Amino acid sequence: MKTSNLLLILIVIFCFSACLKEEIDLDNLSSEMAVEHEFAMPLIYSSLRIEDFTDEGYDSLLIISGDTIKLYIIEDLDYSDTISLGDIGEDFDFDYIRLFHSFTNSLPIGLDMQFYLYDSVDKQNLDTIFLTEHPGEIFIEAAERNEDGLVIEENVVEQNGVVSLDAEQLDRIQYDASHIILDAVVPSTGEWVKILDHYSLDFRISTEARGRYITDLDSI
Amino acid sequence: MKGIRFNLLFSILVIAGVELSAQVNTLYYMPGVPQSYYMNPATQPGCNIFIGIPAISSWYMEAYNSSIGLSDLFWNDPETGEVLHPFHPDADTYEFVEKFDDKNYLNSELAFNLISFGFRIRKMYFTFDITARTKERLIYPDDLLDFVITGNTNGETFDFSDTQLELTEHIEYGIGVSRTFGDQFTVGIRPKILSGLAAINWDNSHMDLYTTRDEWILNSDASAQICVPGMTIPTNEDGTIDLDREMEFDSTLNSFQDYRKLFSGNMGLGIDLGVHYNPMEELQISFSVLDLGYIKWKNYAQTVSLEGTYSYTGVMLDADSTFTYDILDTITTHLDLERNTGSFKTTLDPKIFIGARYSLVPQFDMGFVHRFDFPKEGLKYSLTLMANYRPSHMFSISGSYTPLGGNARSFGLGLSVNLGFFNVYFISDYLTPQYNLVEDVVLLDGINKYTFRYGVNLVFGCNQKKKLRKDKPMYYSDEY
What we know:
- The complex is a heterodimer.
- Chain A is of the alpha+beta class.
- Chain A is built from three helices and ten strands; from the N terminus they run αβαββββββαβββ.
- In chain A, the strands form three sheets. Chain A has a four-stranded antiparallel sheet. In chain A, strands 3-8-5-6 form a four-stranded antiparallel sheet, with helices on one face. Chain A has a two-stranded antiparallel sheet with strand order 2-9.
- Chain B has seven helices and 27 strands.
- By secondary structure, chain B is mainly β.
- The interface between A and B is large, with 48 and 59 residues.
């Protein structure tokens, strides 16, 4: 028998032996698991440019690359939507979540937004989550514009803010609220404004959070 | 399921995870165990002939975690009777993480004889054995645990530079010969042919992760040498690794000849040397060098390098791409993830033993062994004190204590019993009377190093007194 044949046979024996393993059964091993964890991490970012939409051929907006859009929002535009929360984050028990947002808006229109926590059983709003730190502030301010309705691009600045959710609010989201209602408003421009195709909305959202990851060993 | 779970956790500590020894020191002066020549090839087993029963003649298992033991992973809750673990809601996970040092070792070794036999011809003793060995060594920094278990904060840096993983599987063919010269010297040599089965050698020259809430930056200069015969890592035309495809089995392997060649391409050589010197009848001084050798990995040897800087700034909102694809694509763009083919070499971990024993009475001796290990990360030293008692050729017992380089709270124990033609033995360097009984499982308290060698041999010609009676019918002394 050649040495290499012998080797092959030995490898087969070795592999077979390696498959043998001793397993110890701990019937009373607790399957509960909770790990304290904190993290600081970036979540999402984007840069939405008008010209990207024109390149994609959004014909319904009748925008062609190079166009200047003239817009006059006479009254505030309201938009609301109700989103079912379902079973969100049931594996996590957060102490806090802080969402840090940063917007650079070179569009002459702004956006305000807030959320309501809604309990569909008792048919009542449980809490309001404001995205601004002070009442009356607009979430995303419209860019400053000149007398021609064009944005003064050198004056466009980054707007930073933070949304802090404490353990009480997070409990309401997680356990009490059945829906979350989004309420968004595009404030009136008050006059004609012009939108050029290189205007953009850049944003970045990151988070800091701390809590416990609660699970069952059987589910791992 | 729970059994599997325990097995997984145990595997993390034991199987995946060692000490550098690959030998139990207590065996050094136990010639009643045929495999004692593993410690010093000059040692001649006590029986004239031994035949290792295939696959069970010698099992060696070793596990070591430099920071925790099994009793740190499982314990009883006295109130509920449940078995708890560090991640249980009632446990303090932070206290568990703090048990780890800056640099931690998780090693394991498993070896067993496939074939072994030996016999005496006058002053010489010949041995032959084929042993399968699996060795794993993981070095991991506490930063890795911090990051995975407790998470990160804004502005925190994690240094993963000390991370190393070595995993080798090979078959060892050893032919040993020991010869006595006069009454004072016994010299032994045991050359070995090594046949490599698989190897992974991951080494981080540098790797750190800087985390803020706006950006995670990974700096990496790492490489892994991989040899898994039959498996290839898919690459693009420019040599970078194609992360869209999984490792592939070489489809050109079809015949028995192909498979035979597959496992005979990674060969190496090794040698053990040893000597016993008896300056007087009661005193024996010993010296041995083990595991000088290497394996050259040529068949399907590949080197993967991961160099560069990668910055993660979140998921870009883009309807046309998926998150996973984005991440992988960015990694390959910003980090130089390349595969190169070419052979590499791994070495065994050499060891030097210097020992002595003194016979107080013919059946009882006491001694010590200095041990020097030479792994890649530097010299390791240990001192083992031992006592050996052999009331008859049928039974021997050895006790040992390793106060330096071992565990001062534990002791070693070796037992060898001859039942007719059967020799049964069990040896461990690290035992303790203190233990926790978790259900029916005994978890030694305060022990983070486990070494066991046990096996069954067929032995013949072990009763030297009987031989003396035959050889010298006119004179007989119990001192022999």
